[in-house]
Amino acid sequence: MTELDKTNDNLADAEELVKKSMYVSMAAGLVPVPMFDFLAISTIQLEMIRRLSHIYGIPFMEGKVKNLLGAVIGGGLTSSVGPLAASLSKMIPVVGWSIGAVTLPLTAGASTYAIGKVFIQHFESVGTFLTFDPKAVRAYYAEQFKEGKIIAEANKTAA
Q: What is the pLDDT of residue 6?
């Protein structure tokens, strides 16, 4: 197997992992328990990054990754507050769960997709967790979040 074949295999495996993680995050967004859904989505995203790092042979650094995630997602205020607000909206009597059930799966899917794409791009360029610059990827994250929202909307029945 050549180095190019290995790179293509890594990319294909990584893309498939991001797609599956997006669907799982969307399903977690349907959990009717406020904050549990938000924590589940965060755990899914962390596990996705752990598995991406394994695909690319990058040693996983959980503490560092949590900080990086906060820095990347925190840079886009609407995308970081959106899932939390959607989760908390489930606490509103009668209509709250409906609001959260509509908004959180799409936001969770889009966020998971964008995070996955950011780390794929970084690992494909031979980056590590130590060389990751959250400020440098915020625009790409925002772009991928928009793309992820479109994909999640088109595939919301798959979750």
A: 58
Whether the Cβ atoms of residue 93 and residue 34 lie closer than 8 Å to each other: no
Tokens coding 13: 């495996």
Domain that holds residue 20: 3-158
How many beta carbons lie within 10 A of that of residue 14, not counting itself? 22
Helices 134-154, 77-89: axis angle to 10 degrees equals 50
DSSP 12: H
> At 129, phi and psi to the nearest 5?
-65, -30
Number of domains in the chain: 1
Lowest model confidence (mean pLDDT) among 9-23, 81-95, 145-159: 81-95
**pLDDT one-digit tens code per residue, 102-135:** 577 888 899 999 999 999 999 999 999 999 999 9
Q: Give the pLDDT score at 88.
A: 47
Instruction: Give the integer Cα–Cα distance in Å for 108 and 29.
Output: 6
Helical spans, DSSP H, in the chain: 3-28, 36-55, 62-75, 77-89, 96-124, 134-154
pLDDT mean over 78-104? 52
